Amino acid sequence: MITSSSSLSSPLRRPPQHKHMNISNLAQTEIEKHLKKNDRIILGLSGGPDSIFLLHQLLKIQDKLSLTIVVAHLNHKIRAQESDTDQAFVTSHIKKHQNNNPALILEVQEKNIPALTKTSKENLEAVARKHRYHFFKLLAKKHSCRLVLTAHHADDNIETILLNLTRGTGLQGLTGIETITPYPVKPSTLKLFRPLLKLEKKEIIHYLEHHKIPYCTDSSNFDEQYNRNLLRHQVIPKLKSINPNITKTITQNLDIIKGINDFLNQLSDNWIQENYQKTPEMSFPRSSFIKLHKAIQSTILIKIHEKVIGNTSNLQYVNTLEVIQLIDNNIGNKQKRFGKITFYLRNNIVKITKNSENEARK
Fold first, then answer.
1. Torsion sign over Cα 50, 136, 311, 257
2. Is the pLDDT of residue 11 over 90?
3. How many domains are contained in the chain?
């Protein structure tokens, strides 16, 4: 559905003019921190308010930085006619801005994600994300781009933190979404850049309303069978009834949490460098490990999993505590599965092996 400032079903109260300028300046300042003169970038554009806002901020500084902006739209075919309407809107919107602007390029791809999901072991969201990232990577190679920009904002960050909290992902999961991260599809020198993480959704909507900039509304964002939507529409409004500025409050505290997490990572990296062995087999000494604080022990176990497997998917803090208990007690069952690896305790040495594919699925 295409939305404009005159067609919002429940208009938000407009802040004063200077507020809009401040939001725009904040976004542009963050963008300019990480972009270089003559940069070539990919912008993931769904047509929703967040990506449309980001597009317009990039257009404002395009001449100043001599940017080449490759707009990438993937039609997932998830919402039938609505998906096609979004694609038509994005195409039309970009064409309006392409007049005398050869450095604004549109790339569109269609993928039937529901059909692909039927033959995949992953859920719909994971399949859509995988194909979207592969599409962006192909475009980055085609157009010689070094950054992929997405329009994640402060509300997305809070939702991610709360989801991680419910899953028990530990301190790392409470640090939220990073501004710049390595690209998720390997191998790649690409980086993901999210310049809007300090802006709230309501600020973005206010800006688009004020400037009468149209955008699409994704009806699936209101489907509460998805955990993120349930948080967005049920849980977070309750939190805002306690603290109306909960988004800004949590965002401001993220720097403290990230600082603590960085400190733990540094201590853990130093310990791993001194104690972890890859040959003749993966192992580390129990005597040195049990002297550490549990927070450092947990971080070490997660980092070892990442070293061996390449990711930390589906690991939970409670799982690290079970392994720590095994190593600390040194009695009874002396092996413990942890994600896709297993820790064995033998003669005061902790050994690590990869699980077989069948074991990893259990």
1. negative
2. no
3. 2
